[in-house]
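During the second year of the project, the team shifted from modelling isolated chains to modelling whole assemblies. The rationale, set out in the original proposal, was that interfaces cannot be judged from single-chain predictions alone. As a representative example for this report, we include one of the complexes processed in the last quarter. Its constituent sequences, exactly as entered into the pipeline, are reproduced here:
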Amino acid sequence: CWRLPGSEPLMHGEVKSPEYPRPYPPNLQQQWDLSVPEGYQLRLTFTHLDIEASAGCHYDALTVLYDEKVLGKFCGHENSADGHHPGNQPILSPGNRLTLILQTDDSNPERHQNVGFLAQYQAKDIDECSAPEPEDGSGPLCSQICLNTLGSYLCSCHHGFELRSDQRSCVLSCRGGIFDEPEGYLSSPGYPNAPTHAVSCQYIISVESGFTVSLNFTDNFNIESVDTQQGPNCLHHWLQVTIPDREPMKLCGGKSPGLIVTNSNTVTLDYHTDNDGMSNGWSLDYSTHRVKCPYPGNVAKGRVTPVLAEYLYRDYIFVRCDQGYKLMMDGQEMESFSTMCQSNGQWHLPLPECHIIDCGEPKPLLNGGVTFLSGFQNQYRSVVQYHCNEPFYSLLGGVNVSFTCEADRRWRSNSDIVVSPTCIPVCGQPTKLIRAYQR
Amino acid sequence: VIGGSKAPDNTIPWQTLLSIDGQRGGGMVIADRWIMTAAHVLKHNGISASNESVRIYMGLTDVKAPSLSPVSAASIHIHPGYNNLHGLDYNNDIALIKLQDPITFNSSIMPICLPAEDATYVTGMMGLVSGFGITEIDNRRILSNQLNYVQLPVVEQGPCSDSITLAKKTRDSVPSLTNNMFCAGVPEGGKDSCQGDSGGPFALRDDGRFWAAGIVSWGVDCGHRGTYGVYTKVTNYLDWINKTMQEN
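Output from the structure prediction step:
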């Protein structure tokens, strides 16, 4: 059988006698089975009750039952001297059900017509967690932590324990021991109390490459050690700290190891106790730090930015050359340069060099030439001057202009001219004139 | 050139010698790819000379020089207003030759300046006329192999026009003087340009620079008394010259 949609128990409702508010009929035997959802109690409140009064409600009566237990038998009305009227006090069912039975005899008083009853009922959440422990010896509802919810409850366990399949009792647990958050807290099972059984737990702290883990043990550290001639020995109980590429460390005793800087992004903690002895355990806070890269150094004729006290994983640095210089790496010119501190603590690219720029050969001048005034091999700040093959050509504009190799790799004159000058022919001025002295 | 002298080397470096189908003419360098000359040197009986037929010599004063080597014409541009089918109308007697390759100037080849926009022709101002045309040696007229020059004054338009009118009375078919022409010469004769000098320069000098005031065009006889040489007035053609060079 399937429960039909809409047939879910209601959270509240109303119940009334037949033909209410007109008098109820005689010879009546009617039953109402009220229910609210599981996990709730049913609370019934009479808004009106007017049933023929009689001693012990012998003739007409409304009986309220939970299972077969009578919670009340009512008759009369609010002001009647006899009978049993529920008054304004609600009736709370021990469970989520309640049964009402209205029973009437074959006669009714002639002068007074009783109209029956009208009642409201509603669901009331049960706080299962505050309920007293059952007397059957089955123990508390939850062995460690009980959380009340609407219509139900949940059991939960303290850190280091896990809820059993019965959903109420807890058991020591070492599972889920991988910690990948950048910081966190770990403790041994039951800490600061000693576990009742032997434990063999593994905790793996594994954070992103490029970060290193530091362990900071709290002062309350207690792992049983055995005194030997060579000193305390972690013979039966121990916490082993394993860092890759290093010898594992076994820790025990009553003194906290304090801070352990691992310089690794992965640390494995193995906690072992046996059934004997007493170790209260340990707890630690772990934190992570970014890997440090070496100081990048300086670049001649350039600047490394930003300047930081130390350079850490994912930090970027940039190199810019001074004006008139260009970035070069492996014989290739670069437009820009940046390098990042890698997870292995190395810069992903070595620093480039800054080489002086050159403007190339000055553009040749037709019917003229170019003279170096200063500088070296067309390099930055070199100065050249154009001239025309005089007296047959002269510079357009007539003024000798010097050009300087500027940072944009162009030869520019003081007046910002980029193009080369032009030689224009000189006209009408022969190198030799016709001389005639005879008069 | 009648009554002139032999031009020393490098004194008239803009002078060019044109040889077109055996006919001799003159010209002048005005830019590294342009020669200016007279239209009638390049056009006879309405037929223009081909580029290939034009041989241009420059930088020389002796036609027999061993280094004689012509440069080639890329295009010929005769003034559109020149119309001289019968040899009687020398109006607009001007033409430009574009060279195939630009010239590099030196002491023997140099351009002559074009006139300034406001250039004037002052009567009596002495101009330098030059050419490889007919000259007179020992009273015999011969075609010169040497570059000759003569200094001639600019003549007022009125007397010049009178001399042409007079010439028209004694002979047929004398061309007319227009405002695109000016005259130069001496009334007593003996100094003049002559056949073979056509297209050559009449140069005036201002502020130490020679400028192309005229182009040897035509005249009645050469060096006769009472006659003058007629030259194309270059200032009237500055717009056409600049336009032609820019468009080509």
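Chain A has a mean pLDDT of 89. Chain A touches chain B at residues 367, 392-393, 425-434 (CB under 8 Å).
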